[in-house]
Write a structure and sequence with these properties.
131 residues; mainly beta
C-alpha cells in the first residue's frame, strides 16, 4: 500500500504553490487537471501516492511542476484569481497530509499577496550612520 506524501501549500493572487519535501524521490509522476492533481513517487522501497481534489478550479494548461533531489513543487494557476483559497482540498481528510505552509503564507490583505512588495511608510532605522 502506498503512503501519503507530506505536502505544504500556500497561495498568492494568481497561483497556488504546493511542495513535497522528500529527498531522493524517484519515478515522480504528477498529473494536473482542472479539479485535482495526483502525485506518485518512490523513495527507496517506499511508494508515495496521493490524489487531491481541489476546493476551487485551476487552469491545468497553465499549471506546471518541477522537481529536484530535495523536493517536488507544483505551481497551480487559479481559474479565478479573485478568490482567496482558505483550503486547498474539498476532501477534509487530507488536511493532515496537505498542510498550510506557514513559513510562506500570505493573507489576502498583505501587500505580498498581489505581488507588490512595497515598503511601508515607516522610518525604521534609516539615517543611522556609523558610530
Amino acid at each position: 500500500m502506498a503512503l501519503l506524501p507530506p505536502m505544504v501549500w500556500h497561495n498568492i493572487q494568481k497561483k497556488v504553490l504546493v511542495r513535497c519535501e522528500l529527498p531522493n524521490l524517484k519515478d515522480v509522476e504528477v498529473t494536473i487537471a482542472d479539479q485535482e492533481f495526483t502525485f506518485k513517487a518512490s523513495q527507496g522501497d517506499k511508494k508515495y501516492e496521493i490524489k487531491v481534489p481541489l476546493a476551487n478550479e485551476i487552469i491545468a494548461e497553465e499549471s506546471r511542476w518541477f522537481g529536484n533531489d530535495r523536493a517536488v513543487s507544483l505551481i497551480l494557476t487559479k481559474k479565478d484569481d479573485g478568490i482567496y483559497w482558505e483550503k486547498i482540498s474539498s476532501d477534509a481528510a487530507l488536511k493532515r497530509v496537505v498542510k498550510p505552509d506557514l513559513v510562506n503564507w500570505i493573507d489576502e490583505d498583505e501587500p505580498g499577496y498581489t505581488g507588490s512588495f512595497e515598503e511601508p511608510d515607516e522610518p525604521g532605522m534609516g539615517g543611522m550612520g556609523g558610530m
